């Protein structure tokens, strides 16, 4: 298994300062959702971004490899349209073409590989969307995991395209990249 976030530091995932790297508004806009959209949050952790997206969609699956993180989410309150799923992305527990969108905020580096990303593509409906906002290897390294564990926008785009996605937009920022990709209709 790749690097995962230490649950002992879960309180750091609730810091509103995280919005400086990815705001709720940016994430919802990149996802291009509506009230009927079914999405999955990869590496949902304590539900910081899961809870932000929930009011804008019909269903959110909070996917995390660490059940202890789900416990922390439950203790703060899980929105009614959120379902928690303990699984690795490489072993994605969703049927083919069942999700409208999948997103990852600051966790792409934890699962990135063509096998895991291909699993995401398999679970997305035709026209479905994948959004990743993550720490960038091209960043200055002021926050996030060690740069050696990270991808920059170009390498992330290569991985996503290698799994069958079409990159629709991408931006390198001072510390992070934002990438949106679609599955062919």
Give a description of the structure.
The chain has 185 residues and is of the alpha/beta class. It is globular, with a radius of gyration of 15 Å. It has 6 helices and 7 strands. The protein has a single domain (25-182), classed as 3-Layer(aba) Sandwich (Rossmann fold), CATH 3.40.50.150. The termini are far apart. A 7-stranded mixed beta sheet has the order 3-2-1-4-5-7-6, with helices on both faces. Helices cover 26% and strands 26% of the residues. The chain has helices spanning 24-31, 48-53, 67-76, 108-111, 114-123, 153-162; strands at 38-42, 59-64, 82-86, 99-105, 124-135, 166-172, 176-182.
- Widest sheet: strand ordering: 3-2-1-4-5-7-6
With helices defined by DSSP (H or I, 4 residues minimum), what is the helix count? 6
Mind telling me the CATH superfamily name? Vaccinia Virus protein VP39
Structural class of the helix and strand makeup?
alpha/beta
Structural domain count: 1
Which CATH architecture would you pick?
A: 3-Layer(aba) Sandwich
**In CATH, what is the class?**
Alpha Beta
Question: Helices and strands, in N-to-C order?
Answer: HEHEHEEHHEHEE
Sheet having the most strands: 7 strands, mixed
**β content, as a range?**
25-35%
- The residue ranges in which pLDDT falls below 50 over 5 or more consecutive positions are none
Mean pLDDT over the residues: 91
- Global geometry: globular
Helix fraction? 25-40%
Radius of gyration: 15 Å
CATH topology: Rossmann fold
Distance between the termini: 32 Å
Total number of β-strand segments? 7
């Amino acid at each position: 298994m790749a690097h995962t976030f230490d649950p002992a530091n879960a309180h750091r995932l609730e810091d509103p300062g995280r919005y400086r790297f990815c705001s709720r508004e940016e994430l919802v806009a990149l996802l291009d959702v509506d009230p009927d959209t079914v999405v999955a949050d990869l590496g949902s952790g304590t539900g910081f971004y899961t809870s932000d997206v929930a009011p804008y969609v019909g269903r959110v699956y909070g996917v995390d490899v660490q059940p202890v993180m789900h416990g922390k989410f439950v203790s703060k309150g899980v929105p009614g349209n959120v379902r928690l799923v303990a699984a690795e992305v490489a072993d994605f527990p969703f049927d083919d073409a069942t999700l409208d969108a999948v997103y990852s905020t600051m966790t792409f580096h934890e699962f990135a590989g063509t096998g895991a990303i291909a699993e995401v593509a398999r679970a997305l409906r035709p026209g479905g969307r994948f959004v990743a906002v993550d720490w960038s290897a091209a960043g200055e390294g002021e926050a996030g995991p060690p740069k050696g564990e990270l991808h920059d926008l170009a390498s992330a785009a290569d991985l996503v395209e290698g799994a069958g996605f079409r990159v629709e937009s991408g931006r390198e920022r001072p510390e992070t990249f934002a990438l949106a990709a679609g599955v062919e209709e």
